[in-house]
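Please check this one:

***
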Amino acid sequence: MMVIKVKIFSTLAEKVGIREMDIEYKPKMTVRDIAKILASKYPKILELLDTEEILTAVNHRYTSPDTEVKDGDEVAFMPPVSGG
């Protein structure tokens, strides 16, 4: 089976109770598609994923929701970092 490793950080992880999971890869899959899969499995994070404030990265590089992923990629979803 071809997979995408998904990592979830901070308040997103707290909402769903997990920090990472594998999702089956399908051709032409985008970061947005992965977000939709997460939201269908964990409805509590739907409103958070649906904002532009959530940062996404593929293989440790920030990216847009329309970025296509490949088998074996690591996709991260994280809220913005703040501090003072």
